[in-house]
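Quick look at the format.
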Amino acid sequence: MIINTPSTNRGEHAREQLLYAAADVYGELGLDGATTRKIAQVSGQNIAAISYYFGSKEGLYLAVAQLIADTVKENFCQTLTEIDAYLELTSPDPDEAIKLLQKTLVGYNYFQLEKKNLSFTRILSREQLNPTEAYTIIHEQALGPIYTKLNRLIAIYIGSDPNNLTTLIQTHAILGETLSFRIARETLLRQTGWKHINEDEYKIINQVLIEHTNILLEGLRHRKEAEK
């Protein structure tokens, strides 16, 4: 049995402060640019605490990757449970598939654009360009399972094989549209004249995402039906 003591609670608090401070620093500077001194300074913790809790700067980076994976899983737990229940149906309704797909896309759009997740999305962007062991953690535990489930939803809706290479790439293209709002956020702000992305801006972006998804999948579905 684990008994929480003041010392234990302080240790957990210090570890958490280091994790979130490290996410900010790694997101801004990358693994190579970040220093343990900078992370300790931002966290308000002693630099020796990094070695104590994580072993090294690299160990801390992997712990941040685990934090990202856990946060993604927590945010999408309910939606993925709904998708799993749907996929277990003997004769799933294709129209329900697109509703679940849209719900997940909108949820992911919120996740990546929320200010509190800025450091996470910066790290994810860096890992897409120069993947490390950290991305393996994030992909295998969080992003990969989401991708696989959405791919199955798309396959059901358009009437294709989820293992077909074209279907996999179509899924990637749809997810890529949501990523563009994070990666090219500054371009979007300048072109629209927006100063920020808050609730009203979210609504417009999500409306466009759903509209584009509907148009694309309807077209693919009709093409599959015509091929039969």
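Next, a different chain entirely:
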Amino acid sequence: MDYLIKLIFVLLLSAGAYSQTVDRIAVIVNDGVVLESDIQLKIKNFKKEAAISGARVPSEEDLRNEIVEALIIEELQLQIADKAGIKISDEELNVTVRRVAQQNDLTIEEFIQSIEDEGDSYELVRDEIKRSLKINRVQQGRVQNRISITQEELVNFLNTEEAKTQLGPELNVRQILIRTNSQKNIDNVYNEVVESVDSGKNFIELSENFSEDQNKGDLGWRKITGFPELFQSTLEKLKIGEVSEVIKSGAGSHILYLNDKRGPAVSFEKEWEVRHILLIPNRVRPDDESEELMISIRERLLAGEDFDQLAAEYSDDPGSKQEGGKLGWAGEGKYTEAFEEVMMRSNLNEVSLPFRSDFGWHILEVTGTRIEDKTNERIADQAFNYLYSRKFEEELESDLQELRAEAFIEIKDY
């Protein structure tokens, strides 16, 4: 999509400024051609874009050669698209144009108007976007199956300083430093701190009272790579609100506390621990009888019978019945809408009324709730996308070189 946005603004500069000279075939590309007018338009666009951005303009010969090569590659990919029968529907094209307009803080009407205000053709812009979508489809089809990212590669990348700096969140950390020559006993301080935090006391107050550093324990906001190397492995394991073990350094003994984290990847999600019993209606036990049986099972549970045993005896869910109906921990979006709605409205340790989902009749019990930090999962997703993009560019470059080498190309004298 970034490519499309750049393309749009080049087109906005001179989308209608075709050469007024007599056109001719400049390059033969297999069964297709590149026209001289195509080359001249690209040269003119490049120079106008360079004038706006301040970029260096190559010599006339070098610029022409670069543009000719780019148009050859483009033509080869469009020929593949035509042979493969790739079509871009008006709906897909409209969605893409609208997205480009939104990313530039314009309505579609303002976007069209901005093109026309430049004296250019909106239809030409649409046509160029369609060509770009076709090329993108060809590239995805030819390259994506060549890309493989192993778990080991992902883990190794996540452990690099590049990944930690680029993708990792900022951490707000406090410490208690007891200096080597201090009169305070670190073991006594540590035990008191842990006991105080467990009882709900604010660590900020504790660090201000105990810490013997100049900042009263405040280490501020930093990426993990900004903290001393001695702290980094410990901070990677800490959850918000947790106290570390004692860390020894040349300055003394440190107790770290992760106070908060921030950044685009930071994400917290509520999760529910649930168990259930499912009855799937069938010919022997139709829907109404399944409902009646579920009502009686619930009554037995309320009378004190064991959930695990009743789930093992009656539940039609093969994945959970031998586990006492336990489904484990899950956040929103894992279960069907009907199940999730009841789960989210249920009180802890109360058996729900029987309810119907697409699978059949259920009763459920929420046995726990928690807020889980999903930041590391989001960072892993971003890291995967980063590695995929990098490999995609490498594979694409190689594929385009092969495509160029295998094609029949005849560049006419200019």
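The chain has four domains: 2-146, 149-166+374-414, 170-262, 268-373.

See the schema section for token definitions.
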